[in-house]
């Protein structure tokens, strides 16, 4: 049942993963090509500088002050060494960065 006079403000935002990952899969790279392609994808991702973008997104969220926020492409980027070695290392956690940035505001 919809209540008269009830307003709900919402915001949706695509955080964008920060790189074109298609070259990693189509066509499948050879073992020799994979490191170079992976490095390029990571370079693209790094260049989009999510912590800086998160500040701009947090500013918009605070200005709009939505009741509900929908987020797309909320990624966790990790670096994984060759199989059988140390565990993966989280490089960037989009949700954590955005939430911390919002708390600071």
UniProtKB/TrEMBL annotation:
InterPro entries: Endo/exonu/phosph_ase_sf, Endo/exonuclease/phosphatase. It comes from the Bacteria. It holds the Pfam family Exo_endo_phos. Residues 11-75 form the Endonuclease/exonuclease/phosphatase domain. This is Endonuclease/exonuclease/phosphatase domain-containing protein. It comes from Bacillus carboniphilus.
